[in-house]
Amino acid sequence: MPICIEFDYNNAMAEVVGPRHGLTRQLLEDLKERAAKSHKAFLERRATDVGFFKLANTAGRAKELQELAALGDSIAAACENFVILGIGGSALGPACVQRALGHLYYNLLDKAGRNNRPRIFVLDNIDPEFAAELSDVAPPENTCYNVITKSGTTPETLSQFMAFYDCVAAKVGPQKAKEHFVITTNEVKSPLLPLARDFGFRFCTMPDSVGGRFSELTAVGLLPAAVAGFNIVEMVRGAEAAAAVCDSPDLFANPAYLNGAIHYLADTVLHKNISVMMPYSEALRDVADWYRQLWAESLGKRRGEKPHEVCVGQTPVRALGTTDQHSQVQLYVDGPNDKIFTFLCVKKFRREFPVTGGLNAMLQGYEYLSGRDIQDLFEAEFIGTEYALKLAERPSVRITLERVDEAHIGGLLFFLMVQTAFAGMLYGINPFDQPGVETGKNVARALMKGEGSPDAQWLADIRTYQRERLRYPAVAIRTGA
Amino acid sequence: MPICIEFDYNNAMAEVVGPRHGLTRQLLEDLKERAAKSHKAFLERRATDVGFFKLANTAGRAKELQELAALGDSIAAACENFVILGIGGSALGPACVQRALGHLYYNLLDKAGRNNRPRIFVLDNIDPEFAAELSDVAPPENTCYNVITKSGTTPETLSQFMAFYDCVAAKVGPQKAKEHFVITTNEVKSPLLPLARDFGFRFCTMPDSVGGRFSELTAVGLLPAAVAGFNIVEMVRGAEAAAAVCDSPDLFANPAYLNGAIHYLADTVLHKNISVMMPYSEALRDVADWYRQLWAESLGKRRGEKPHEVCVGQTPVRALGTTDQHSQVQLYVDGPNDKIFTFLCVKKFRREFPVTGGLNAMLQGYEYLSGRDIQDLFEAEFIGTEYALKLAERPSVRITLERVDEAHIGGLLFFLMVQTAFAGMLYGINPFDQPGVETGKNVARALMKGEGSPDAQWLADIRTYQRERLRYPAVAIRTGA
Lengths: 481, 481
Prior knowledge:
The structure is a homodimer. By secondary structure, chain A is α/β, with parallel strands linked by helices. Helix content of chain A is 44%, strand content 15%. In chain A, strands 1-14-11-7-10 form a 5-stranded mixed beta sheet, with helices on both faces. The mean pLDDT of chain A is 97.
């Protein structure tokens, strides 16, 4: 099937939204030198420590993809439930692809409706209720768990692994329990690799050079997709099609670079510190959630040294059309002009839903809604919203997919990864690290380990903090029994 | 059961997060006059056209609540699936309460696990795939639809009503079809009222003085809660407990006013144009989504007349702990200091999930995670995140619920409603209207009605816009077959 992903940026330009809040051709032209440098810097990273771009290669990965598909099929045949134990980049990609390509109520279909595939869950949190209640509907004895952690050290995921291993072992014994787990982790330096090798757990590896939020096209994303029965070669083919276009150094021929530049200028020149992604598609709903990590964690960085340090990065916001027209659009149209919008549109939907006229005799004045598909209203609402934003001088861009299938989702995610990497180069920061999460991790570890551990230097700080922060008494709503 | 909801604002204050990004007691004291005026303005609205505060009254509403509970029980007994057709304020409250009080995988439980209650769905969008695929799992013949629209004119909801009415009628005939619908709408001016009365549909009404986003404690939210088997008297009792405290004119004794003032000052004095709500609780996850509408649609407003018009309002962002530590916290710690955070915490969880030690012999160095409940890690991660934000001088507040039950959720939502109303008074805007959504609605209606309708004046504008916006050609990713 042909692939077509169109990027339309007219509503980000001054000709449409006016000179105060729109970009000009000149501003983009002026960026050319910096864009060329950024392209070069990105190529250098791609040649050294950044591996995601190379993943867009169906021919070079043919054997690996075949093996992943086969592993997915064998897992699917062996269990009733497939649970992803992972968080962040290990969860958002698989969840987004499942939402995009699966039935929207997949887990409620009977087994035939699921093509004999297991139900699929993403357990991306450590709330005790979440894990306990999952076990009510996915009993450990007929569940396969995919432990996904690049580092192999993520405490959330390891805790889940520990707990579910014992749950399964209690039902089927420790030796058979291992067959209920598949580990996806870094090929070179994860503590889960020796565990898998020495104790006989199945495992997949991902390249050291691919960060979690850029890892959807590694085993992280492809194994769950294969378990669901999606065509993972097509996913990579879509990425390959995107890579061919998004490799161009010409800003105006490369949609990923162009959208990266538009967002960079929207932030730094037009003071839009918020990037809203608003799919008009339930299937694409969680693309916005996946993008939210990609954009935030890649670009939210400190640049330079104190005291000249600058904190950069737009805050990504997930929205959904038309749903959020009844929640956020009031703010988007009348609130501060501090946002740039990315609409995700779909031309051909998988299903029809005709609005028929049986109520017309009972409800006068709304006949215009009937006699057509509900998609017509969906599209009219999108145009109305885009136009209302334009009248309010709010810049936006549109990415339109011909349809939502494996190739288009692979292409779209790859497009957004390149856009993000390139934007990072424009900002002059490293889009591939995440130093800002260390403090919280260290504190949590110290609290868990307690006194006497090598991490305990944090404990005294935390105890002091917890005591000294209590300057103002809490104000409470309180009743007796 | 006793209710306890604590509001702790220490981390919003300069003593904890430093003078550049923290508030001072003095700033709050200086607001006293404006706060007194705002309290008075709110009281005036409450005495005239704003009715939500009065809903917190178990004694005065005893009969109504009893009737709603009985109607909920009778609906629950008569169907296998209960589908809410509504959008915005008609969907977010019911969805948030179902998530908070129901099993987290409720629809996957068997009927006994659901206490013989129907499965519950919220169809808050008009994507054709969404409605068609819902019908795959909730066949019209054993489904009850709750059509919720305050105005009775929401085109999304009316389209759904039309389509599903004919789906049901095709299965059970037009007369019996009516029994599959319950309408919730405005008691005085909805076109669905005469429809219901003249043609024999069941209906509930909501007061004209209660806007959609403030309507969770009317039939909008209470009927779905009753269908699910929740104790709606307890929900109102929680709101009543909140109302007793949140009626005080004293900023420092009224947690809703205090948090409204803190957010108002964070925006206008400290330039935090983003309000992040981050529950550390899967059950409370969708409170952040409900708050997102409440805060955005109430406060995102234009104030004054052109050319002195000002666009005000913080952008609310939903986050989730610990999940978003692996997605957003990098940005929150190292990105621009443009946010204020509201953490929602829970003291007692409904379930336990022990992390046992069966892997300890295979995985050295992580024994500290085992031998305890996963809740311990959950709480340690929260403290780590709050502390990391404090070190980075990012202000935050905490709202802690003793547990998540009917009374606490009613109290929490009421707290946030009062906070929002009061913040609107501080901003000097009307938090109870939404004029900004009219343009988009008008355009969508004109597009649907086409030439010759009274709405067609918009059509020429739209046609011109669609033609003239195409200045720059789309950049595409495209392949052959």
